[in-house]
Write a sequence for this structure.
């Protein structure tokens, strides 16, 4: 048992299904969210993880869900870094969660 729902998502909607659909792209794959969703909600209702850990210890799914822990960084295809838990989805977003460009450390 993986804990994923029938669409492969870690989260499953149980309410508020009447909002307008918003299309975006995640790692080159078209996915659908609902108007007003955060990126974190969009990613976890469509997949089993938010991103890969930069420390090589597996998948991440966010932690605090309120913009404080920085566990939910994802990137736009243009390289802008976003906190998925506090960024609303927008139609046409192109999000990258794998092989993202972390800033170099010294
Ligand atoms: S989940 Fe903690 S900052 Fe986004």
């Amino acid at each position: 048992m993986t804990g994923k729902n029938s669409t492969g998502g870690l989260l499953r909607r149980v309410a508020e299904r009447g909002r307008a659909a918003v299309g975006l792209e995640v790692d080159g794959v078209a996915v659908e969210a609902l108007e007003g969703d955060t990126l974190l909600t969009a990613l976890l209702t469509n997949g089993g993880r938010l991103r890969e850990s930069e420390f090589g210890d597996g998948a991440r799914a966010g932690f605090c869900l309120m913009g404080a822990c920085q566990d939910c960084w994802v990137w736009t295809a243009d390289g802008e870094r976003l906190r998925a838990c506090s960024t609303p989805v927008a139609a046409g977003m192109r999000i990258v969660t794998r092989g993202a460009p972390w800033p170099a450390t010294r």
